[in-house]
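TEACHING EXERCISE
Course module: macromolecular assemblies
Task: Read the component lines below, then compare them to the predicted structure of the full complex.
Student: A.B.
Group: 4
Components provided:
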Amino acid sequence: MRHSPFRHLASLLAATALSACGGGSEQSAPAARTVTLAWQASHESGVNRTGGGYQVSISDQPSIDVPYVSGSAAPTSASVFLQPGRYTVSVQAYAALDAQGGNTGSLSAPSQLITVYVR
Amino acid sequence: MKSLSRAIIVLAALAGVALALLQQVVAVSPEPLGGGVYVAGEVLVKFKPASSAQDRIASVAALGHVVVATLHQPGWVRVRIASGQSMDQVLATYQSDTRVASAQPNYIYRSAAVPNDPLYGQLWAFKSAAGNDMGLEPAWDHIADCSSVVVAVIDSGVNYTHPDLVSNMWNGGAGFPNHGYDYVGDHDNDPMDQFGHGTHVAGVLGAVGNNGTGTTGVCQRTRIMAVRVLDDTGAGTTVTTMQGIGFAVTHGARVINLSLVSSGGFDPALSDAITDAQNGDVVVIVVAGNGNGNEGRNIDLAGNVTFPCAFTQPNLLCVTALDQNYALAGFSNWGPTSVDLGAPGTNILSTSLGGAYDTLDGTSVAAPQVAGLATMLRAFNPQYTYADTVSAIRNGGRSADALAGLTATGKAADVMPSLAYINPPTGLTATLQ
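Instructor-supplied answer key:
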């Protein structure tokens, strides 16, 4: 389940390449872009039921809550509109159950960080 | 006004007659629920809205059954089935009836926090006044029934007729009517314990709980697969152990407890068997072993190495024993590289050969505490892989001073934090639109 460093690099290159498309003869100010973030579904039951979900952290941006809504699993993607720049992104999973058996909630450690360039 | 009152009375009388007809109420004296997961001799049937009361009665009566009660929810009735009929057969019959929407057992729900087993107070590993325990009680509020997971006790066999084990034994079907296999004696499907070790181990991880009898295991309900690889002196071989692991993996175990140890040197054949278990997504819990007399030793040192603890497969967890002060038990081996964590392993009360109970010390009785936890985690999180399970146990453990520097984690198994532990998400990618 460990990340391959090549996978990380691939996502970086993909983001960079995509951001370079659509150029004209005149340089205009780079426009904000929609970035879709996706991750593997958690195997924890608590993440995939009411009170569970994911929290996406993007540097210099408000965090994004991706709660469980219905069905068999919480959503595993989120889209965000980002101005040109360099961002670090991670995702954490959460559930209602806490380590004492109550419902104050638990949060996972962050996923591996990735860097996203929007140009 | 008078005619309205009369109409109401008539309607009420008719409704009463209809209800009586539908219910065919029989006097049912309350019976003990027993240790099963559903009420024996009963099913719940939901009839489709279009079916009339007569249709319902006909459906039930045709099978020789009796409606005991209509339930509040529309269409549901509680049915007493004929003696000798199997639950599966009855449910299949109802489900094939076009007037029936669904049918199911009358499942038993229990208040899970504190089981009513009379010897529960002696199970210090689960709840102790000093707080040196694995904290089972809050966890049982969330899951006490691990019966969705098969856990294999690969040991000296199991006394599968023990009253505190019998209803938690794996159902091996017609091929394995005695809940497992014997690779030592007659090489047949009767893994009856002749030594007692395996029966004790089985009770630690899965004695039936909250049944008003004896003790409880970490899992109050589970499915214990008995695999006999140790003889009536408690000795086995690479071959018997490999065969036992192979049986467990092939027949659906998700967790294996191996409370056995050898200091005979690296055993590549047994290592292959552990790898097969890894490939089959099976967690294997093993022991650090007991030193000579009361002298535990560092098994990471050359000359002291023991197997299977020293194997490095990621599906393997090696357990050492803690005493009631949460100090390392004097007899218990340790190893900052090969031993993962500790668990209670002295004065452990559990099921014994003769159908009673006794206490044992040893890493052998510490490992099944962790095997029970692994079983519970996999029941609580059905999508858990072996890697998720191992991670939750290691990360959910609580730091124990006595284990710092003596085990890889420096932790003791702790049930509730492991249940609440969430593995970090993986596979994060970004795509620009």
